[in-house]
Design a protein that fits this description.
alpha/beta, four-stranded parallel beta sheet, two-stranded antiparallel sheet, 10 helices, 38% helix
Length: 221
């Protein structure tokens, strides 16, 4: 399994990589990838970090698990590989994007174009066994991604955190609200969205308003 992470993140998380839990986690992940089909591909496990260096992060979107279907996950939360049909949550994200901004619903569900503009598309758990949702939870990834959020909260300012659903809101407890912006809503999954907790949150236009107020370049959604 070929795993690398961007130099800026390697520097910021150097202490985390040396902790016993992380070394145990990597051994677990390596064994899982040897013994089972797992997602995303090994080289894409840290794609969220590779596309969005530490000092370039403007926005953070927090997901839970990678997609566990064949060919879907590409290392960014809610994102799928080019040519893969949009999963239900992503469909609802694009519907809200269209309603909020008037942008046409994208053909590709690959969100690398967002990540490359300074959006950290962070899943709380970075790997999963094929067709077994949650199979790599509670193995150490959550502690690692908590450390990521803490590092951003402590060392950066005026990042916009988009917390969609209860799970992401819990992760938000690591964020210093006196230094950063937090936008919350329900999760874009059909269960939550169809109950009225997602549609109408206008997070895409609100994000750009906040970026503009900070004198930063807006996201081309």
């Amino acid at each position: 399994m070929d795993v690398t992470i961007a130099a800026s993140w390697k520097r910021e998380l150097a202490e985390e990589f040396e902790k016993p839990y992380f070394k145990d986690l990597i051994e677990f992940v390596k064994e899982e990838y040897r013994s089972h089909t797992c997602f995303p591909p090994g080289k894409a496990i840290f794609s969220a970090f590779d596309h969005c260096p530490f000092d370039k992060v403007k926005v953070v979107i927090i997901g839970q698990d990678p997609y566990h279907g064949e060919g879907q996950a590409n290392g960014l939360c809610f994102s799928v590989q080019d040519g893969i049909s949009h999963p239900p949550s992503l469909t609802n994200i694009f519907k809200e994007l269209h309603t909020d901004t008037g942008i046409a619903i994208p053909i590709s569900g690959n969100l690398e174009r967002w990540a490359d503009q300074g959006i950290l598309m962070l899943n709380a758990t970075l790997t999963v066994r094929a067709h077994e949702a949650g199979s790599h939870q509670k193995k150490g990834w959550e502690q690692f991604t908590d450390a990521v959020i803490t590092a951003l909260s402590e060392k950066r300012e005026n990042i916009i955190f988009l917390l969609w659903g209860g799970f992401a809101k819990k992760k938000g407890k690591k964020i210093d609200t006196t230094k950063h912006h937090i936008l919350t809503s329900g999760h874009p999954s059909p269960l939550s969205a169809n109950r009225g907790y997602w549609f109408g949150n206008k997070h895409f236009s609100k994000t750009n308003e906040l970026l503009s107020q900070e004198g930063k370049e807006e996201i081309v959604w």
